[in-house]
């Protein structure tokens, strides 16, 4: 019949839940809801610059449970352009969320040597949760054109970027490490 009350997940709904057989997961929330957002960085800020030193596209998938607590975050990061001669890394800090809140962090690719990682995969020695994605964009978006910069000059061949996937798990089989964040806390960390 398609219309049921799914109490196994703790979510009462008339629609089929996303995770009908997982009592610890209920919803997926995507940001942005469609496609990717773009962030542009100037590595000499606050000096004047061109904001093309590192250009990344990104999307986040947040999995919440029935209590609207975040079970897992997955980031899809695409380094699109590099206009700097410096080696720029990229990480996200979650203000208000303890570094011990993450159960584990898994990556589709190692994040390089700039960051020292704790046992859970976050950055070691930080009070707030810091998630490194990469140490040097040049190691991910490799310049094969012989020119300076990558994907900043329309007259030079475009180098196709890879998508990096990083997943932060806040709950494992119903067990949280420390103060599982809510959807609102994650949202504030990205403002």
What ranges have pLDDT less than 50 throughout 5 or more consecutive residues? 1-9, 187-191
* Major sheet summary line: 6 strands, antiparallel
Mean pLDDT: 81
* Beta-strand fraction estimate: 25-35%
In total, how many beta strands? 10
String of helices and strands: EEEEEEEHEEEH
Share of helix, binned: under 10%
* SS field, number of helical segments: 2
What general form does the structure show?
globular
- The class by helix and strand makeup works out as mainly beta
Oligomer type = single chain
Rg, Å, rounded: 19 Å
> Termini, distance in Å?
42 Å
Describe the structure.
There is one protein chain. By secondary structure, the chain is mainly beta. It is 6% helix and 33% strand. The chain has helices at residues 137-140, 183-189, and strands spanning 27-31, 37-41, 54-64, 70-81, 90-98, 104-107, 128-134, 164-169, 171-172, 175-176. The chain is globular. The chain starts with 26 loop residues before the first strand and ends with a helix.
How do the helices and strands line up, and which of them pair or pack?
Layout: E1 27-31, E2 37-41, E3 54-64, E4 70-81, E5 90-98, E6 104-107, E7 128-134, H1 137-140, E8 164-169, E9 171-172, E10 175-176, H2 183-189
Antiparallel strand pairs: 1-3, 2-3, 3-4, 4-8, 5-7, 6-8, 9-10
